[in-house]
Every structure is written in C-alpha cells, then in structure tokens.
Amino acid sequence: MPVKLTIYVGTMTGTAELVAQEIEDWLTGEGGEAEIVLMDDLDHASFSEEGPYLICTSTYGQGDVPDNAQSLFDALSDQRPDLAHIRYGLIGLGDSTYQQTFCYGGKRFDALLEELGARRVGTSFYHDASSGEMPEDEALEWFKAWLPSLLDERREAA
Ligand SMILES: Cc1cc2nc3c(=O)[nH]c(=O)nc-3n(C[C@H](O)[C@H](O)[C@H](O)COP(=O)(O)O)c2cc1C
Q1: What class does CATH assign to 4-157?
Q2: Domain boundaries, the chain
Q3: For 45, which of 9, 82, 112, 136 is 20 to 30 Å away at the CA?
C-alpha cells in the first residue's frame, strides 16, 4: 500500500500513543509505512513535509491539549504557517463525562489546522473513555475505513 503516514501524538498517559502504535502495526502489515512522533519537540515548521499526517491527541485540563502538545499548538497559533499543502486526519481522545469540553484537544487542533489552510480528509474519530470501547480497537476500525478516502484524495490530486 503506497502510504507513508506521519502520526503526531499528543498524550499525557500514553493512550494516544498506544492508538498510534496499533495503526502503525496494521499499516506496516499492509505494506505501508508510518512514523510515530510525540509532539514534545515539534514546532511551527513541523508540517513542512507534504505528509499526509494523522493527528492523534487526548484532552486535559479544561478542554486543553495535553502538556506535550502545548508548545506545538502555541507555535502554530503564533507563527501561523501556511499549511495549504497539508492533508491530515484526526483522532481525538476524551471522556464524555467532561461534557462541555469533550475531545477539545483534538477539536482545537482540527480548528487551528483548518484556519491555517490545511485540509482534513474524511470525518474525525473521537474516542470516549466512558464508552467501554478500547480506543486502539475502535480507532483502528475507523482508520481502515478512513484510509481509502486518503488514497482517493491523492489520486484526484495527481
Ligand atoms: C485531569 C484530566 C482532565 C481531563 N479533561 C478532559 C476534557 O476536558 N475533555 C475530555 O474530553 N477528556 C478529558 N480527559 C480524558 C482524557 O482525555 C482521556 O482519558 C484520554 O483517553 C487520555 O489519553 P492519554 O492517555 O493519551 O493522555 C481528562 C482526563 C484527566 C485525567
């Protein structure tokens, strides 16, 4: 499968990283490639490659991005790079007991990337920790259904 995906992970306790690893394992088994990068050291220039990117992030505080995603989020907000060349998918992790801010970490990234001109492929996946569903299982099912949309987009762009 001709896909080389970069997965940017925002996490506090490792769930989002586990989700990314599950996707990487499956994609590698299908002949694709994925590189998992924790968001810690990323900055406004981290979207200079064409991608595609998958943003996989949880939510903390009062609807904030996790600590390891904050400097990337701030750098993008302040520097406002033009991301018109970027295609991305989005996985947000949260808990619906936080009714007012459910999955806001992912939703904030989604809104910011769109503001900067990047285009999201397909619908996002939001995992609810209160649902009883395993995030890595649900996210992988979503990913398998999402991937054809990414491949279609690339065919149209070619
Ligand atoms: C202190 C704390 C605050 C949280 N705040 C929110 C929130 O505002 N909205 C939300 O949807 N989930 C919130 N969550 C739930 C986490 O985002 C969720 O458990 C997620 O799966 C954790 O993923 P991680 O291990 O990758 O960080 C919070 C969890 C904790 C422990």
Answers
A1: alpha beta
A2: 4-157
A3: 136
Kindly give the confidence (pLDDT) of every residue in the chain, 158 residues in length, as a single tens digit, with 9 standing for 90 and above. 789 999 999 999 999 999 999 999 999 999 999 999 999 999 999 999 988 999 999 999 999 999 999 999 999 999 999 999 999 999 999 999 999 999 999 999 999 999 999 999 999 999 999 999 999 999 999 999 999 999 888 777 76
How many Å apart are CA 51 and CA 68, to the nearest integer?
21
Most ligand 1 atoms within 8 A of CB, residue of 40, 60, 97, 109 to mutate: 60
Cβ atoms of 76 and 112 within 8 Å: the answer is: yes
What residues line ligand 1, using a CB cutoff of 6 Å? Answer: 11-16, 58-63, 66, 93-95, 98, 101-104, 129
Stated pTM of the model: 0.97
Nearest CA to ligand 1 atom 31: 60
